[in-house]
Amino acid sequence: MKMLSDYPDRICLAGLSFYGYTGCFDFEKQNGQTFLVDLTLCFSELRAARTDLLSDTVHYGEVFDVVKDIVENGKFNLIEYMAGRIVFDLLDKFSEIEAVEAIVSKPDAPVEGVFQAMSVCIFRDRTTGFRVDTGEI
To answer: Is 131 helix (H, G, I), strand (E, B) or coil?
Structure first.
């Protein structure tokens, strides 16, 4: 498996904010909370850097919509699973993306103490054969 640093060209979407209902506790599933997502989409070469054509890149708005649907409409126990779904769905829906790193942060995690957020980072490329169970909770 390659690493993030193996890809010279990347598109980064930072600080995507959504309201969702993922969590292990009933109050999280009922009341919901904010989730933050940072994405790095990886490429051997971004042709749009040479051509200036939208058709030679990934449409950020379409990527945003895929992630929004997963976070806002998915009902999962764990942000680990949410991050896995984001990575798998982006690789599945956008053939030009060679690898994806997704960081899902939960700023209001039900943990006593002072913290900015609890986060999970998942990185996969197309060579890993990564799949997730699609059964929702």
So the answer is: coil
Collapse the DSSP code of 9 into the 3-class scheme (helix H, G, I; strand E, B; otherwise coil) and give the result.
Answer: strand
pLDDT in tens, 24-40: 999 999 999 999 999 99
Please give the tally of structural domains in the chain.
1
In a domain, 25, yes or no: yes
Q: Classify residue 137: in a domain, yes or no.
A: no
**17: CATH:** 3.30.1130.10
Tokens coding 130: 């990564």
**Nearest CA-CA partner of 1 in 95, 85, 126, 131:** 126
Please check whether residue 111 is in contact with residue 56, taking contact to mean a CB–CB distance below 8 angstroms: no
Catalytic residue set? 106
Report the number of secondary-structure helices (H) and strands (E) in the chain: 4, 4
> Which residue range forms the structural domain that includes residue 64?
4-128
Name the phi and psi angles at 4, rounded to 5.
-50, -40
Q: Which residue has the tokens 């490329």?
A: 125
pTM: 0.91
